Amino acid sequence: MSLHSLYTVAYLEVSEMQMNWMQELRRKHDPHYTVVDPHFTLAFAVRGVEQGVYLDHIATIASETRPISFHCKYAMLGADNIDDTAYVFLVPDEGYSDLSLLHDRLYRGVLEPFHRLEFPYIPHISIAGMKDFKRAKRLCDELNSRGVHVHGQLASITTGFLKDGKFCHVQTFELAA
């Protein structure tokens, strides 16, 4: 068994200007800014599967998946199932269904027992996290009034784990269909 809970994320291929904009927002508003770069999380905290079996499963799905274009035009108020933290999510218009379908495929086979169906999957890039829901909503409204435009491509997915406040990479798989 893996010693750590494994995650699978897709890092963003975006312009330097867009990345700098997101990172500046995250630096100001996201306590996890230093943990991991902007990404879409595709598989959450799986523990209890042999790491090699997990990686083989992710490799198979990646080899059957085309790169995904995305365009986030909306900042959405979000929450999680862990605590009372408010989040600001950038949610894609373009790429939403492709990301959701990839998430669903990842949770078939060996990962099916770990699929938390009680928490619907919303593809998103987290750019802020705070305890004040009203403040988070104001940030969403401010971003939406100015216009959100983060677009790019997802060409690979990366499996890793959290250790000492950092996301540690195990393996990256190209989306190769």
TrEMBL record:
InterPro entries linked to this entry: 2H_phosphoesterase_YjcG-like, Cyclic_Pdiesterase
Top-level division of the source organism's lineage: Bacteria
Alphabetized Pfam families for the sequence: 2_5_RNA_ligase2 (PF13563)
PANTHER family linked: PHOSPHOESTERASE SAOUHSC_00951-RELATED, PHOSPHOESTERASE YJCG-RELATED
Protein name: 2'-5' RNA ligase
Organism this protein belongs to: Nitrincola iocasae
Record lineage: Bacteria, Pseudomonadati, Pseudomonadota, Gammaproteobacteria, Oceanospirillales
